[in-house]
């Protein structure tokens, strides 16, 4: 690391946040920076996958806390409190010992790791925020803030179906939090905190300038710092493994035996799940569609269950040989495989980018946070996917799967996805917008 500028990265401890941060680390390393990843002990990245990075585990004292989805806000709050002093102490030691670590150029942190801002300010170190979502999602926060300021919350169920004024084509039901429910003050504060960028000198986005120019320029007026859109990160970065769970490679052998474009890949990412009834209806719908499928059922997938021993009775018998079940897939390899013709996704932003980059059209079933915005983009703006409507039943699943995988409509969706894939690839190639933005980012960090 001697003589190199060191960038300190502070990821948030969730798969969909760790992945882009580690990818950003690889991108910056390829531009000559050394990388130190300061991470919480909870959901720590697998250090052996990144032998050229340095890692620092920050004691977070959350081992005993409930890690259910409902309690994640409290876990995050504890991490923000408990990791502050360890990060500061470590950076002080690094700066006293520069010959070991190189000069610290800046700290780049995930937008939910708010404690970093105070540490950076107290040490007079420049910082930048990394946003792992779209610009449209960040703008959607304003809807929440405005409705709250005008005392209009909660909305009625029928209002949820209406379009948000001046925010085409998004509906109230696509906003960051269900607006028809009471929203505790604490939750509003959380959104306000993650929207703000404190003393950050710039924002790094996992999106592209040409993908959402309007939303980016509106936000630019708000934040008034340089934006660097260097996405899709996974195409800018040398490939790196970022999974927190073990990838089951068996499914690749299974895919090798399937016909081209025949398989529907079903995965709801690292957090979203289904209830028992939805699991069974999905299973029957997939089977009745007649298409082979590869379905990721994580160890905790059924909402409210503590493990998969609580999968519905008879589930595995129904699936039999008709589909391949895995606990965690090597998703990027799966989406690249020629047998995969569609992706039923919860529309996490990483999954959405990965699907587009391999030209795989989607069935969208968003669950929370930015997934509704991403889904709306896929189905109503880019026209590269179908919405899986609620409530889930076997007839609807069968019909939607066949529309995507068999019908002419599906072919058109695939062709549009492939067009988009080409545009994404152009943006990361020499002369493309993300490529240029990365050059500017590297220069910005060197001169900061
Ligand atoms: N992923 C994976 N294997 C799986 C499911 C997901 O490797 O079986 C990866 C996927 O490639 C993506 C990440 O996990 O990079 C999930 O991030 P995303 O933003 O899509 O969703 P989240 O998990 O944050 O809801």
Automatic annotation (TrEMBL):
Belongs to the UDP-glycosyltransferase family. One of its GO terms (molecular function) is quercetin 7-O-glucosyltransferase activity. Pfam families: UDPGT (PF00201). It comes from Lithospermum erythrorhizon. Keywords: Transferase. This is Transferase. The keyword Transmembrane helix does not apply. The lineage of its organism: Eukaryota, Viridiplantae, Streptophyta, Embryophyta, Tracheophyta.
């Amino acid at each position: 690391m001697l003589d190199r500028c060191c960038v300190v990265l502070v990821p948030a401890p969730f798969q969909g946040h760790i992945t882009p941060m580690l990818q950003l680390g690889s991108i910056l390393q390829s531009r000559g920076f050394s990388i130190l990843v300061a991470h919480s002990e909870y959901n720590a990245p697998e250090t052996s996958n990144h032998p050229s990075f340095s890692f620092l585990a920050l004691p977070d004292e959350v081992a005993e806390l409930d890690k259910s989805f409902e309690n994640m806000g409290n876990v995050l709050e504890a991490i923000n409190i408990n990791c502050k002093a360890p990060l500061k102490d470590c950076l002080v030691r690094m700066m006293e010992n520069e010959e070991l670590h190189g000069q610290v150029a800046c700290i780049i942190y995930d937008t939910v790791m708010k404690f970093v801002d105070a540490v950076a300010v107290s040490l007079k170190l420049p910082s930048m925020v990394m946003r792992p979502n779209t610009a449209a999602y960040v703008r959607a926060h304003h809807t929440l803030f405005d409705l709250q300021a005008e005392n209009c919350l909660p909305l009625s169920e029928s209002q949820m179906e209406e379009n948000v004024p001046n925010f085409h084509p998004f509906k109230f039901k696509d906003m960051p939090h269900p607006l028809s429910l009471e929203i505790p003050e604490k939750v509003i504060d959380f959104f306000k905190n993650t929207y703000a960028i404190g003393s950050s000198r710039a924002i790094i986005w996992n999106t592209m300038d040409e993908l959402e120019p309007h939303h980016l320029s509106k936000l630019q007026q708000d934040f008034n710092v340089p934006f660097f859109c260097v996405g899709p990160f996974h195409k800018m970065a040398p490939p790196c493994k970022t999974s927190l769970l073990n990838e089951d490679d068996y499914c690749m052998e299974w895919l090798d035996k399937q016909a081209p474009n025949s398989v529907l890949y079903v995965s709801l990412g690292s957090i979203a799940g289904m209830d028992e009834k939805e699991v069974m209806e999905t299973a029957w719908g997939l089977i009745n569609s007649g298409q082979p499928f590869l379905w990721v059922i994580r160890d905790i997938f059924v909402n409210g269950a503590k493990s998969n021993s609580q999968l519905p009775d008879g589930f595995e018998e129904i699936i039999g040989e008709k589909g391949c079940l895995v606990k965690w897939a090597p998703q990027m390899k799966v989406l690249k495989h020629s047998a995969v013709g569609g992706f039923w996704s919860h529309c996490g932003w990483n999954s959405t980018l990965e699907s587009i980059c391999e030209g795989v059209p989607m069935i969208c079933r968003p669950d929370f946070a930015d997934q509704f915005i991403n889904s709306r983009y896929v189905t109503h703006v880019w026209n590269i996917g179908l919405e899986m409507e609620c409530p889930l039943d076997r007839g609807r699943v069968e019909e939607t799967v066949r529309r995507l995988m068999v019908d002419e409509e599906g072919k058109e969706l695939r062709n549009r996805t492939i067009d988009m894939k080409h545009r994404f690839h152009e943006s990361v190639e020499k002369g493309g917008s993300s490529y240029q933005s990365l050059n500017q980012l590297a220069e910005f960090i060197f001169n900061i």
